[in-house]
Specification:
This protein is an alpha+beta fold.
């Protein structure tokens, strides 16, 4: 059974717990011919003005950049043995402002939510490293499924926040 809400707070604790424990997410994009491409990455998340907001520190590869230029809609799928899972439908936009990169570096450092993230210094020298790129992830739908009984809760953004 699924329930739907527009209040992210109703499933925020479960979202944070699952994402923090699973950490790795499969990101899906599509090419110009609508063929999917997946890659395993680690986004971080925060709550801003009552709404979820994600960030992905990444390399700006030609394939990822081309896919997002053609279609900025993406999905992040988290899954763990026992079937606890999270699916995030979001719009991804490059945001490489220095202040944003500093903020995202800090979110990864302190892990957000707790447990999610990693030391970005393993791949980049600092937030000002020109090889570091950031994707702002604006979710419009998040589904959290509890594996024990497959209870599903879905958050959807209102029309104002759906892009």
């Amino acid at each position: 059974m699924s329930t739907t809400t527009r209040d992210f707070g109703e499933l925020e604790a479960e979202f944070d717990t699952y994402v923090g424990a699973i950490n790795y997410a499969t990101m899906v994009t599509v090419d110009a011919e609508n063929r999917p491409r997946t890659r395993v990455l680690i986004p971080v998340w925060e709550k801003v003005d009552g709404l979820p907001l994600g960030w992905l520190a990444t390399f700006r590869t030609p394939v990822k950049a081309a896919h997002l230029e053609g279609n900025p809609h993406t999905n992040f799928s988290y899954w763990a043995p026992g079937n606890n899972s999270v699916a995030v439908d979001a719009v991804a936009v490059w945001d490489n402002e220095p202040a944003v990169k500093e903020h995202v570096w800090d979110l990864y450092r302190k892990t957000s939510p707790r447990g999610a993230g990693y030391p970005l210094g393993s791949f980049w020298q600092s937030p000002s490293d020109p090889r570091l790129h950031v994707l702002r992830l604006t979710p419009w739908r998040i589904q959290v499924i509890r594996g024990a009984d497959l209870r599903s809760r879905i958050w959807r953004a209102d029309g104002e926040h759906r892009k």
